[in-house]
């Protein structure tokens, strides 16, 4: 299925001739977190974990830092209806997560109806589908809701956090022991942490991982 999304044209990043959606040169320029000598769970790497809020999550898995070309692939996924960037990132994610303990269900982070109306898709759902398919994992898109919240600009830190807490609501507790929340990019970790806390309240023993394509390391 991933192959069908990746026609043999030009590299979507540099436009040079390529047999894959992203050419070998661009792939070689990508910083991957994957390192056989280090834990795959990024929360076990202090140099990465300290950048991400994780009071209610057990594991964090990502391809690499939010920088070129992952930032470009993510931007393209959100602003065009081109799904090739999602195919590339899903393939890179699955390859790097070889020995990982798989969850029972994938839970994509919801977007507002307004955003969905504008974009016509939720990028986290599309990524969850492409990552879940080769791993044979079911996707639950009905687990949480994103309400239209106030703009975050002009609010202080406390107000922003309060605003975020009110913006997301877990509506269905997944009937399983281990889940992975799927988000396209993790900037501070606040969003997934808010959702994970709500899940944890309803289901104290659930194991909660976060699967994302990129993590912002410098704030
Ligand atoms: Zn290229």
TrEMBL record:
InterPro entries given in the database record: ComF/GntX_DNA_util-trans (IPR051910), PRTase-like (IPR029057), PRTase_dom (IPR000836)
> What protein family is recorded?
Belongs to the ComF/GntX family.
What is the protein named? ComF family protein
Organism, as annotated: Alteromonas ponticola
Query: Which lineage?
Result: Bacteria, Pseudomonadati, Pseudomonadota, Gammaproteobacteria, Alteromonadales
